[in-house]
Amino acid sequence: MQIRYLSDYSIPRPSLDQGNEEQKKKVKDILEDVRRNGDRAVKKYTAMFDQAELDAFLVTDGEVDKAVSEVDEETWNVLHEAAANITAFHERQIQQSWMTTQENGTILGQKVTPLDAVGIYVPGGTAAYPSSVLMNAIPAKVAGVKRVVMVTPPGPDGLVPGGVLAAARLAGVREIYKIGGAQAVAALAYGTETIERVDKITGPGNLYVALAKREVFGVVDIDMIAGPSDITVLADHTAVAREVAADLLSQAEHGELSQANLVTTSKELAEAVSNEVGFQLEDLPRKEMASTAINEHSAIYVAESLDEAVEAVNRIAPEHLEIQMEDAMEVVGKIRHAGAIFVGRYSSEPIGDYFAGPNHTLPTSGTARFSSPLSVEDFVKKSSIIAYSQAAFIENADKVARFARLEGLEAHARAVESRFSNKKYD
Amino acid sequence: MQIRYLSDYSIPRPSLDQGNEEQKKKVKDILEDVRRNGDRAVKKYTAMFDQAELDAFLVTDGEVDKAVSEVDEETWNVLHEAAANITAFHERQIQQSWMTTQENGTILGQKVTPLDAVGIYVPGGTAAYPSSVLMNAIPAKVAGVKRVVMVTPPGPDGLVPGGVLAAARLAGVREIYKIGGAQAVAALAYGTETIERVDKITGPGNLYVALAKREVFGVVDIDMIAGPSDITVLADHTAVAREVAADLLSQAEHGELSQANLVTTSKELAEAVSNEVGFQLEDLPRKEMASTAINEHSAIYVAESLDEAVEAVNRIAPEHLEIQMEDAMEVVGKIRHAGAIFVGRYSSEPIGDYFAGPNHTLPTSGTARFSSPLSVEDFVKKSSIIAYSQAAFIENADKVARFARLEGLEAHARAVESRFSNKKYD
After folding, report:
1. What SS3 state is found at B325?
2. Is position A320 annotated as part of the catalytic site?
3. Which end of chain B is more exposed for a tag (fewer CB within 10 A), N or C?
4. Which residues of chain B make contact with A416, given a CB cutoff of 8 A?
């Protein structure tokens, strides 16, 4: 793994894949087809892209029962404990409606309401991700969303991975459709004869899913467009090279475009981690993918001082940040931009991916500058409440009319004044 | 104004204007030009679109001083009081970072951090909107954003409206550039030689500004893409027709595409409001615009029952909702979807536009189904914190490794296990 001096290098960041014009056109055509032709179009694309001929998309209770019964007990217990941890953490994010009252009788406030219906996209293919189900469905459930719908592409046998269905059962998702790709996003956004539209679509997916989500944004809300996964480890001489290297590789195995950086104040650690990465890479099942990520998108940066190292981390705005330093907790306050911060030796990143409780859906590609982890807040929306009393109205009506006229909006001023010149007034 | 029975009609909703391909291409070209050529490109487009030849974009302190001195005292006082109300309301939205500690020593939490830098777009042209400055800048300031930048297009004389500058002074905005359109959005998103890039762009604008914001979304965050303004008044026989009509017209004057609906349980009120609207329209300065909005996009809907009326309102998901009914406050709990809810006779909508305190930037075009008013939350982001203790790690490492292997991610499992097989361990 390459070692560079921070003073000489600016750190490259992978950008979001926006797709090319041809891919965008393809996605737009699918969306339009599903919007017009509903289930018929969804069926067509499911046969075309997933090689599955389905009569109905809905997963039956029987299919879920079967999946649950096939999960071994230990795995079920782990899923169950993870779900409990995720629930407990997200319950802390619940916001209350609030109101303020004024002496003149006016009430102002903010009402928090769960979304009516949410669609969760769960990727299929070779890798099945039960953790995605938990991390998307549980915050929605905790928020109070009544209708949580899951979509996931079927295999050519028309089936959905059992682990995903078991996780759905654990998370309380009861409406599951075997559809995927842009056609699934379209079905969720526009609705079909058998699938009612939702208000928001969350969850990861391939490029076509991402393009489709971007395209329907506005018709429905979306969570975020995820780029390649990334990790930055901020470490000093107290860190253990073997552990740092293993944590870097855990993100590198996500894909060729992943980025795994080490920023360190220790030249010795830099060299030891570089060696360890090479060594550990050798017998990784996903060696090829991880090697490309490490060699083409990642590096070890040596900093002259803690301040220089911290500033580099803030410039990176990593999705995952590990702080493996003496007094690691004291460094947290210096971090302005990071999706999740893992503090200390025992906070290995995968603990957050699966188990600890905070969400694993995090801002990638430097968007931690302005974005947050997926949370309960993503599944509620707010309404302002303004209840002016007669006294407050009489006191302030002229001021409002003056402000409106300053902006040239006469009908706004007259709306307020209409209360004065009416028989029913006073 | 047309009267319809809810039982017979589904209520049409204006959709977001997405622009045509030619407009999108134009915007993309401008963005790309500014990204490559910086100030030179911004200067070129400012001359082209605003007919202003500028040597520098930055508004000087002297220009702001002059603008403030030209505002009459009464107007200044109104602006000042509005700013105080907006500040007080938004201070209620401040969220705290939080942490939970577990007996085994683990700490989990959520850190709230203000964005580093935010750009506020303030439209120019014939109408100057000081209220936009207050409604965008104050939440950013309350959130703790250090750098709040304002951009607004200059007139052909190279000047910016005084009211807008006065509002900027009141809101504490000190970095103001005389640029507008897609070129201003590009300068904020990518940065130029004289304008440092920001992390988020908020504020209303014309179609080109909206298209540019949509295009740079991902490079920076944006607030929302605003559609035409709308209001729905929910009223019974106790409402005053003259006042309801005036409130409907206050939104209709915003533009030809605005929508102003009345949903009422009273046939008599429906007829009276219909007459009043016709009558009051006659001598409105923006009569033409408001007439088009009323005749082509708005209607009065008569409901058989309160429940039917409320259900219609929830289907509309209005930007502004007025409840002009007996026991209006009791109806609030039935409303699931609305940007702002104005309760009772004295809560005329313009009071919320300018003065009461809640934000006037609200979800349009039915997006109140899933979106919220602009708030302090739009100017902060969160980072999860995971600090596992050794005890918690030993207790849970095997479970995490099991979950990782369930998803086929071996390097994730090994990252956790690397803590066990190391000399430094224990």
Report:
1. coil
2. yes
3. C
4. 348, 350-351
The complex's ipTM? 0.94
From the list A218, A341, A413, the residue facing B384 with the nearest CB is A341
CATH number of the domain residue B119 falls in? 3.40.50.1980
Do residues A61 and A139 share a domain? yes
Active site residue B90: no
Extended strands (E) in A142-229? 147-151, 175-177, 200-202, 221-222
Our CA-based measurement puts residue A255 at a distance from the nearest CA of chain B, in whole angstroms, of 11
Q: Tell me how far apart the 2 most distant CA atoms of chain A are, in Å.
A: 87
Looking at the structure of chain B, the number of domains it has is 2
Considering only the beta carbons, identify the residue of A342, A343, A384 that sits closest to B341: A384
The catalytically annotated residue of A319, A322, A349, A360 is A319
The residue range of the domain holding A209 is 21-97+111-222
- Interface contacts (A, B; CB < 8 Å): 377
Rounded Cα distance, A161 and A64, in Å: 10
Asked if residue A377 belongs to a domain, the reply is no
**Given strand A259-264, what is the order of strands in its sheet?**
A3-5, A300-302, A259-264, A230-235, A320-324, A340-343, B380-387, B107-114, B98-101
- Residue among B77, B404, B109, B227 nearest A400 (CA): B77
Is residue B25 included in any domain, yes or no?
yes
The shortest CB-CB distance from B92 to any of A98, A126, A340 is to A98
Q: Which residue in A21, A107, A211, A384 has the most chain B C-beta atoms within 10 A of its own C-beta, making it the best mutation to test that interface?
A: A384
Is residue A236 domain-shared with residue A190, that is, in the same domain? no
Looking at the fold, whether A154 and A295 belong to one and the same domain comes out as: no
Q: Is A422 a member of any domain? A: no
Tell me: is residue A206 an annotated ligand-binding position: yes
Q: Do A357 and A248 fall into the same domain?
A: yes
